[in-house]
């Protein structure tokens, strides 16, 4: 996903309002029949595509001319006939991205108030304006933002999305094949002269692609059920582990945090499930041809999860400094788990970043992002994978996450539990196994 330095300022940068309290009225003339009739229209309005990566997607301040700005008369109608004592009591207002930001007091449940305000606004203005119910990071109080829908149009790209995604996909297939052929990895220049050796990397590449495919398919299926539209996935190649996973943009306005959480959790949860099954299967199956892949036992110190499973299943066979033969499925599945774990880091617009945003809100998500990038930066001094990943996050996935229609309501606890589980499993995979494998050393330890 491409970032634009000229995009609209973050929702984390609201300025203090200068206007005093306003008198408000309510519009109680909407009967239940008109509400039912308008409800489908409101839900359909969020299907409009927008550019992700900006709190108000695709908006550039210098492109806002007077025809896009809301008139004083419109603002008065919003204050007096759309907002009200029963939904959102407005105390001050200020200009915001061609629209207006209302500060005040939220009445009742945020979801119900948002629905009432949206119905009234559509009854007055049809599809001219879009409502966002956000949280002001300055004081953690709800604020309402109303902007013209013309300012939410997506930006065009010079290269068709499918073409760029296809090019990235071909390069990723090549790096996945190359990763599973050590002879070529040690001398990249010899690859062109030995392309026939790439077929030896096909089984490992297929296992990793299976895990990545399940990950992306789960995103797509859950997103469809939640009314969230996803862009074409961009597979990201990696010389070290074959692939860094896929970058998948959200191209419409997500209704609420629970919907974002469902979509974000679905991919890594499915990827972890398939990866763990294949990892366990690899430990139980005998090495291919009685030999398999010979690795030093110390390699299992690189992951707390993989090292713990290896110690549990292999027992005394796993000794410090001793080569061990394992089924190659162990290595392939581990690579798939690592890719899912990296995407579960709570930073930017990674799955983990979207999970942390959906669970704890925009302010906490920004802090998680800063902390994660800082830790990755320190890790990059010792690990080149961390270096490339922090660069990828910073340039392509740093966010901020585009605003949801309604960001005040917390997700259901069962989805929160799943989100925390994903973050925890990702942490177990990325953290090293700190304990020695040999029982004698363990006793002295």
Summarize the structure.
With about 450 residues, this protein is an alpha+beta fold.
Task: Set down the secondary structure blueprint.
Elements: H1 32-45, H2 72-82, E1 88-96, E2 99-106, H3 110-125, E3 129-135, E4 142-148, H4 161-179, H5 182-185, H6 202-226, E5 234-238, E6 242-247, H7 257-284, E7 293-296, H8 304-314, E8 323-326, H9 328-343, H10 351-360, H11 362-379, H12 384-397, H13 413-430, H14 439-444
Antiparallel strand pairs: 1-2, 2-4, 3-4, 5-6, 7-8
Helix pairs in contact: 1-3, 2-3, 4-6, 6-7, 6-9, 7-8, 7-9, 7-10, 7-13, 9-13, 10-11, 10-13, 11-12
Domain Peptidase M50: 205-371
GO biological process, one term: proteolysis
Protein name: Peptidase M50 domain-containing protein
Task: Report what the structure shows.
It is a single chain. The protein is built from 14 helices and 8 strands. It has helices spanning 32-45, 72-82, 110-125, 161-179, 182-185, 202-226, 257-284, 304-314, 328-343, 351-360, 362-379, 384-397, 413-430, 439-444; strands spanning 88-96, 99-106, 129-135, 142-148, 234-238, 242-247, 293-296, 323-326. The chain has 445 residues and is of the alpha+beta class. A hairpin with a 2-residue loop joins strand 1 (88-96) and strand 2. InterPro entries: EGY1-like (IPR044838), Peptidase_M50 (IPR008915).
What attributes does this structure have?
445 residues, alpha+beta, two-stranded antiparallel ribbon, 14 helices, 8 strands, disordered N terminus, disordered C terminus, transmembrane helix, plastid, protease
């Amino acid at each position: 996903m491409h970032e634009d330095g000229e995009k609209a300022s973050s929702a984390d940068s609201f300025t203090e309002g200068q206007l005093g309290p306003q008198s408000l009225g309510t519009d109680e003339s909407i009967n239940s029949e008109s509400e039912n009739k308008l409800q489908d229209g409101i839900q359909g309005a969020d299907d409009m595509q927008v550019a992700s990566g900006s709190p108000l997607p695709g908006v550039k301040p210098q492109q806002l001319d007077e025809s896009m700005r809301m008139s004083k008369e419109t603002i008065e109608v919003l204050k007096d006939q759309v907002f009200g004592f029963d939904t959102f009591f407005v105390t001050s207002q200020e200009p915001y991205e061609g629209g207006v930001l209302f500060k005040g007091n939220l009445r009742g449940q945020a979801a119900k108030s948002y629905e009432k305000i949206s119905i009234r606004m559509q009854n007055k203005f049809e599809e001219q304006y879009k409502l966002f119910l956000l949280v002001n990071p300055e004081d953690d109080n709800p604020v309402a933002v109303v902007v013209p829908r013309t300012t939410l149009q997506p930006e065009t790209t010079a290269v068709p999305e499918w073409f760029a995604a296809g090019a990235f996909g071909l390069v990723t297939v090549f790096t996945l094949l190359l990763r599973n052929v050590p002879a070529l990895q040690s001398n990249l220049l010899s690859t062109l002269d030995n392309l026939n050796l790439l077929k030896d990397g096909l089984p490992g590449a297929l296992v990793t692609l299976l895990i990545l495919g399940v990950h992306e398919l789960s995103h797509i299926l859950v997103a469809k059920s939640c009314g969230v539209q996803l862009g074409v996935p961009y597979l990201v190649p990696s010389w070290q582990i074959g692939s860094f996973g896929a970058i998948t943009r959200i191209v419409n306005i997500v209704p609420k945090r629970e919907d974002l959480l469902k979509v974000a959790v679905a991919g890594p949860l499915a990827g972890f499930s398939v990866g763990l099954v294949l990892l366990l299967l690899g430990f139980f199956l005998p090495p291919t041809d009685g030999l398999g892949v010979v690795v030093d036992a110390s390699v299992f110190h690189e992951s707390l999860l993989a090292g713990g499973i290896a110690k549990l299943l292999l027992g005394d066979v796993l000794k410090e400094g001793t080569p061990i033969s394992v089924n190659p499925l162990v290595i392939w599945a581990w690579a798939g788990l690592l890719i899912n774990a990296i995407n579960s880091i709570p930073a930017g617009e990674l799955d983990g970043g979207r999970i942390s945003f959906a669970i704890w809100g925009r302010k906490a998500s920004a802090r998680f992002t800063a902390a994660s990038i800082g830790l990755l930066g320190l890790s990059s001094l010792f690990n080149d994978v961390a270096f490339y990943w922090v660069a990828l996050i910073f340039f392509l996935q740093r966010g901020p996450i585009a605003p949801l229609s309604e960001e005040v309501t917390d997700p259901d606890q069962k989805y929160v539990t799943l989100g925390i589980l994903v973050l925890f499993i990702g942490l177990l995979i990325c953290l090293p196994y700190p304990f020695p494998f040999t029982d004698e050393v363990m006793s002295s330890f």
